[in-house]
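Table S2 (text version). Query chain:
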Amino acid sequence: MKVLITGSEGFIGKNLVVKLQELQEYEIVHFDEKSLIEDLRKEIVDIECIFHLAGVNRPQNPDEFAAGNTDFTRKLCDLIIDSECKIPIIFSSSIQAEIDNPYGISKLESEQVLLDYSMKTNVPVYIYRLPNVFGKWCRPNYNSVVATFCYNIANDLPIQVNDPDALINLVFIDDVISSFIGICRQMSKETYCKVDPVYSITIGELAEQIKSFKENRKTLVIGDVGDGLVRALYSTYVSYLKPQQFSYNLSKHEDPRGIFVEVLKTQKSGQVSFFTALPGITRGGHYHHTKTEKFLVLKGRARFCFRNILTDEKYTYCVSGDVPEIVETVPGWAHDITNIGDDEMIVWIWANEIFDKQLPDTIASTVT
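Corresponding structure-token output:
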């Protein structure tokens, strides 16, 4: 399918272009601020769908709203009609089309131009009144509070929160792109379309959430970044890191047995660490009442010894880093792990709770 993307160099446009290229079923005609509408006259006859994303939102002169939004949309529609083409158009409007300001008026008038085009040609148009869109490649310190907060916090710059209780509605760029492509593939009966989900959050909560992403490198405690708004915000935050910020150091605890390093802590699902042990070294020698752990030997050979602290039942099990295998510790069973190989042993460990010095739930006990 051959598609035209106006505003292909903008925030939404860049994300759309990349996704369409990945799908390998679209031929893309780009149109950006350097392009001329007349340049499309030869291309337009082969276009099957238009993503109309181009527009003006923060001009120096308010008169540019009408020229960059309404007038350009009219020129685009006139060009299609003059070429006797019937091309569906997907339009990125704004929730500000409901507000009486120069930008909102220009978006509302653009919508009407498209509706008139649809009536004249009997071709569908799809209008998205988008709320605040956020995600990678959005320009910071421009018109996106998420982009500004992410960029500034990541780079130790101040942020301004005028009203922490002010509510903001957000849509994630990946959801926007998915919705656009879905409409392009299977035309809807609805003219006005919505992106789902729409997230609501206060400015104060947004600022604190993004600040927590920066702090997790110090505390190692990461929030629920695998789902919903927090997932999308975290993805957006890290996209503003500079290459020299991609890595960070961890604290290493070292003694004659080897090293121990805490890697990551979660608010509800424990923590991940790793340790090393030299040949012949035994670690552990304790039991837990509630805490459970999963061990994975990444390198070397290990012998796990277990003892039931009530019955004195004993169990020994050997594993090798050559075979990925999890060994779990069980409450009420004392346990230790010994390096029975000739080289350093490296072991990954997950515990179902963050270690608390005040309540360690780790009681020393002989195993063998």
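Notes on Table S2: The chain is about 30% helix and 30% strand. The chain has three domains: 2-130, 133-169+198-248, 252-364.
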